[in-house]
Amino acid sequence: MVRGARPRRAPGICAAVLGFALVLGAREAHAGDPAAARELLKRGYLLAQDGKCDAAVPLFDESLKLDVKAITLINYADCEEKLGRLGSALGHWVDARARAKVEGNRDVEAEAERRAKLLEPRLARLTVVLPADAPAGTTVTRDGVALGSVSLGIEAPVDPGAHTIVVHAPGRDDTSTQVTLGEGETKRIDLLLGAPARTAPSRDGSVARDADVRRPSPLLWIGFGVGAAGVAVGTITGLMALSRARDAERTCPLGNCPDQAALDSVDQGRTFGTISTVGFVVGGAGIALGATMLLVGGSRSGGASTALRVGPTGAALTGAF
């Protein structure tokens, strides 16, 4: 499409491009760096002639940033069309037609007009419609590009192929819709809103999803409370049992108690010892429960009920949660 290029060329478009190669160097540039723009155009053209349009497109794009020329636009549009980017290609054919008219290149203008008319029927067309009850602030993106309100509900040209449409509505879960269109195909997509999102107020007054807000489980406090009480009871009764044991050693040497009072003191010591053991067992169980709840995490909803059962031979902590 410029002088010195390889002789291979696509029919129609290449003739127009090569015919106006001299214009590229003759006309004064209006922006950027025209010399660099021309070099980028040349390199892009050679890549395109080798069938490497995916590598040529970035060069054409950069060339246009440095110096906007109709000849660059038609090269760009031709490559995009070959890559299946029909929507972008049509836009560049139209831009090339307008630019050629400004430059006075009637042949390029006519070629751009012809190619645009040929391409337009091949475009897929997609109508995206939001439900009437969509809340204020609802946004829609197509392939990651936000669609303004004026783009919704109208038939818009898109590239053939797969497209992803995402709806984000305040207070609702996001929804994603996949749609695939062939060349010249027309479709209408009626979007759906997601389910209401579960939210809970955070400490700073903002709103967060309930899944991200976890409250400490009541079992955590119950476990540590029971553990502390059990350890306290075990410690106190253990000290009392030790005191009775010392008294028994003095009053009942070798297990021979002189009277009933001494026997009662020995029995009390044994009882305190049993209670102390039970207290430490219950305390250990409570602390283990609290530690487990601390490691596992809090609960989102619901409560818990527990009961401490103490029997003649032990104790147990039972509950429902």
Folded structure, characterized:
This protein has about 325 residues and is of the alpha+beta class. Helix content is about 50%, strand content about 20%. It is built from nine helices and eleven strands. A four-stranded antiparallel sheet has the order 3-2-5-6, with no helix packed on it. Strands 4-1-7 form a three-stranded mixed sheet, with no helix packed on it. The two termini are about 75 Å apart. Mean pLDDT is about 75; it is low at about 1-30 and about 300-310.
Q: Approximately what portion of the residues adopt beta-strand conformation?
A: 15-25%
Q: Shape from CA axes?
A: rod-shaped
SSE string, helices as H and strands as E: HHHHHHHEEEEEEEEEHHEE
The low-confidence parts are 1-30, 299-308
Number-wise, the strands total 11
Cα-atom radius of gyration: 42 Å
Produce a short descriptive summary.
50% of the residues lie in helices and 18% in strands. The chain has 321 residues and is an alpha+beta fold.
